[in-house]
Structure formats: C-alpha cells, structure tokens
Amino acid sequence: MIRVTVSYPPHEHYRFDHVYYQSTHAGLIRERLSNLGLIKLEIDQTLSDGTDTLPASVAAAHMFFADIADFQAAMAAAGQELGDDRENYTDILPVVVISHVIQ
User: Fold this and answer.
1) How far is it, in rounded angstroms, from Cα 31 to Cα 66?
2) Order of strands across the sheet with 59-65?
3) CA-based, 20 to 30 A from 18: which of 10, 25, 55, 100?
4) Contact between residue 98 and residue 1 where contact means Cβ atoms under 8 Å apart
5) Tens digit of pLDDT for each residue in 45-99?
6) What integer pLDDT is reported at residue 98 of this predicted model?
7) What 3-state DSSP class applies to 2?
C-alpha cells in the first residue's frame, strides 16, 4: 500500500480555509477518487507549538492507494479538478510525498 501526503507549508501572510478544506475539498476527494482506487483519506490540521514560528505545514491530506499505478490512474482522471479546487481554500503551493506503507 502507498500513502500520498499532500501538505501545505505556510508562507508569510498565507491563506488557508480549514473549514472548506475539511468538508468541501475532502468530500470532493472522496467523491472523485473512491471509485478510482482510494482506500482511505485522512485530513490533518496542524496545531501550533506555542511559539511564533510558522509550522512546517498547516494542513495535510493523506490518501491511501494499493499502489502507485492506482494513484496515477486516479490523478489522470480527477487530478485536474482537485487541483483547480485549491484556489477555494488556500494560496499555498502543496508538497506531495509518496510513501510505501509498511504494515
């Protein structure tokens, strides 16, 4: 199994709508990718450590697929729509990390 993590590293004066991201965008991910191999979706909202420094990430989506081929096929089918929705919740360019999940 693989985990695709899409995280959002902040910049000064960033914009991020957690309510939209956790409800509308997460719903769009589930709706578009569930029939395309998405096994599980987890959404994170980063918590402050109490200092004045920006966190490494303000939010992340973790999408689980059987393998990279399933992920690539899902993105070929729905990736453009999901990417276009980003303007509705943030001005941050996401970082994508693909990991092999060891169980």
Assistant:
1) 18
2) 40-45, 59-65, 2-7, 95-100
3) 100
4) no
5) 998 888 888 889 999 999 999 999 999 999 999 999 999 999 999 999 999 999 9
6) 98
7) strand
Q: Are 65 and 101 in contact (CB under 8 A)?
A: no
Whole-number pLDDT of residue 48 = 82
Measured over the CA atoms of residue 55, residue 56, residue 57 and residue 62, the dihedral's sign is negative
Which pLDDT value is given to residue 52?
Answer: 81
How far is Cα 34 from Cα 94, in angstroms, rounded to an integer?
A: 21
Q: What's phi and psi for 4, nearest 5 deg? A: -105, 115
Beta partners for residue 100, in sequence order: 2
Task: Read off the pTM.
Answer: 0.93
